[in-house]
């Protein structure tokens, strides 16, 4: 019997040394290998496709802005030229709150922070966005 798909709202982001960061949205789980075209001299009419470099898209995390400065301090270190790389995990849970899937991202650092938009006629939560780049993704 096939297993039902997991729902995308039941996840947690774990960042080394940062425990109070709860996120409402996480996107960018993407792995890509660029093809490298190669022509062999013995077969000049066909292009061979070799594997090139592995690339990973930036992870975008969104959350309601709080008075915690931990994520901003991590970003500020990058701005100051003292980049601190951390390991990051994105964990998917089932409805019984059991861990089902985990993506481990290695050597990550925040490349972009975007503050909230303000609108005096709205009562929506102020959202901050953090974009994190990384060098490797492993499915755990």
UniProtKB/TrEMBL annotation:
Transmembrane segments: none annotated. It comes from the Bacteria. Pfam families: Phage_T4_gp19. This is Phage tail protein. It comes from Floridaenema aerugineum BLCC-F46. The lineage of its organism: Bacteria, Bacillati, Cyanobacteriota, Cyanophyceae, Oscillatoriophycideae.
């Amino acid at each position: 019997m096939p297993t039902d798909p997991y729902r995308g709202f039941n996840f947690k982001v774990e960042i080394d040394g940062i425990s109070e960061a709860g996120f409402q949205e996480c996107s960018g789980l993407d792995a890509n290998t660029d093809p490298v075209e190669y022509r062999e001299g013995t077969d000049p009419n066909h292009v061979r496709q070799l594997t090139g470099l592995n690339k990973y898209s930036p992870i975008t995390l969104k959350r309601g802005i709080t008075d915690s400065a931990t994520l901003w301090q991590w970003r500020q270190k990058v701005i100051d030229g003292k980049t601190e790389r951390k390991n990051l995990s994105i964990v998917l849970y089932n409805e019984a709150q059991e861990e089902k899937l985990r993506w481990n991202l290695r050597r990550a650092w925040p490349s972009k922070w975007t503050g909230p938009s303000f609108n005096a006629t709205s009562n929506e939560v102020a959202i901050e966005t953090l974009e994190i780049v990384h060098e490797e993704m492993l499915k755990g």
